[in-house]
Amino acid sequence: MDDDIQDILDSVSRPSVPQRTLDLQALTRAWVNERTSPELLPYPSDLVERVMERVKKQIETIEDMTGTADPKSNFTLVILQTELERFKFLVRSFLRARIAKIDKYPHHYRAEALKESQATLSTPSPLLSHLEQQYLQSHQGLLSQHYHSSFLSSFPTALQKLDDTAGGISMVDKPEEDSAVFCRVLRDAGSVEIQGATSASEAELRRGDVFVIRWSAVSDAVKRGDVELI
Amino acid sequence: MYAEQANKLVLDAKRIQNLPHLPPYAATTVRAVTKEVRDLDREVSNLLAPYSSGSSSTTQSSDGTQQIKSSFSPADDPATACALLVNHLSMRRNKRCLLAYHRMRTDKLEGMCWSGVDVAEIQDASASASGRQSGGGAATSSLSAEEEQYVHQYSDLLAAYKGQWTDIDLTGSLEPPRDIFIDVRVLRDAGEIQTEYGSITLTRNSQFYVRQADVERLIQQGYLQRLS
């Protein structure tokens, strides 16, 4: 994931851009993607770690500068604080968007995370961060406990499950993968199949193009970093 | 009619979606729906009793649809098969309605936890709201005992998760920050607060130009009002 981001950024921006700017770009992109995609995207742990590291440093810098109480540094201080607030907002909004998605389809993501952990022991960018996984587990624990104590316990045992698939309807809700998203192609990414009402056709993803397209058609390209959502 | 009570819950849940406060927990309806499910289940086992051989207790615990297939052939007796199907579907429907109702309420409660409302305040607020509605009756909490417990546990969980992101303040404002300094008016006495620029005493009706991050929490709690 991280390498991918690096790649895209290298291809779209001048090579002399420092890591700080790249991270900001990547964070903004991750934030927009996360907020607009119907599905949860893999967690960019390295990126978040780097950003948090920088936020911590910036807080220290600001504290140092306030300590000196030099009237001349006040203006710089305001700029630094504004920047810090904006960074904090980005990370906060990003994490909240993820939590909202996790809370919306808890069973689905729990199953996905489980599948992932069984498939490979260490993926570079897992779907959920460690903390999110903990949150998901305990939240589900609380919810099912609540349901049980409220009414499920007096149900016949056959009906007490929360992830029942009997009767032709699965109780596990899934994100709508066919919903439309707006996206911009950052890098030529081959062609994708578009399912029309009557027939299927192909669309070429060329750099700079903007599409309204089904999420399922571009989700892989977005995860690779070839396409960004807008 | 089957699932009529459950439908009430779903309508209620729909209504709750747009309410600022949480109406009282519909304990009676929930109980009625649960009872209906138990009655339906009893009826199913009564219907199936003649068909099951000896080990009826074990077939009971297996899944409903399998039960029909294994112990009795629907083609022989379509009427009974139909009755069983309707009963099963009604039970499932009732369960979904109950789940939807409870989920709606817990979502609402979680939202309150996220927006920083204190647990005790949630109860007070909903209690007073319900009190007003019922013509100033006894101020009882509109949360069920289970819900109260849930709120407590959820806010603990949230606090634990938030604690990992202390630099970010996860429950902070989701509005993109424009200015770091804002004008606020004090609505309720909030005592003295410490900021990087010294301490301020927040007395009612006074107005301040302060750093947003310092007073974020107080705005959420309703002590201060932001002036645009």
Report on this model:
The complex is a heterodimer of chains A (230) and B (228). With 230 residues, chain A is mostly helical. Chain A folds into two domains: 2-174, Methane Monooxygenase Hydroxylase, Chain G, domain 1; 176-230, Ribosomal Protein L9, domain 1 (3-Layer(aba) Sandwich), CATH 3.40.5. Chain A is 56% helix and 10% strand. Chain A has seven helices and five strands, in the order H-H-H-H-H-H-E-E-E-E-H-E. Chain A has helices at residues 2-12, 19-36, 45-68, 74-104, 106-119, 130-150, 215-224; strands at 180-185, 191-195, 200-204, 210-214, 227-229. In chain A, the strands form two sheets. Chain A has a three-stranded antiparallel beta sheet. Chain A has a two-stranded antiparallel sheet with strand order 2-3. In chain A, helix 2 packs across helix 3 (45-68), helix 3 (45-68) runs antiparallel to helix 4 and helix 5 packs across helix 6. Chain A is flat and about 75 Å long. The two termini of chain A are 19 Å apart. By secondary structure, chain B is mostly helical. Chain B folds into two domains: 4-160, Methane Monooxygenase Hydroxylase, Chain G, domain 1 (Up-down Bundle), CATH 1.20.58.1030; 181-227, Ribosomal Protein L9, domain 1 (3-Layer(aba) Sandwich). Chain B is built from eight helices and five strands; from the N terminus they run H-H-H-H-H-H-H-E-E-E-E-H-E. Chain B has helices at 4-17, 27-48, 56-61, 64-71, 78-114, 119-133, 145-163, 212-220, and strands spanning 181-186, 191-195, 198-202, 207-211, 224-227. In chain B, the strands form two sheets. In chain B, strands 4-1-5 form a three-stranded antiparallel beta sheet, covered by helices on one side. In chain B, strand 2 and strand 3 form a beta hairpin. The longest helix of chain B has 37 residues, at 78-114. Mean pLDDT of chain B is 75; it is low at 54-69 and 131-139. Chains A and B meet through helix 3, helix 4 and helix 6 of A and helix 2, helix 5 and helix 7 of B.
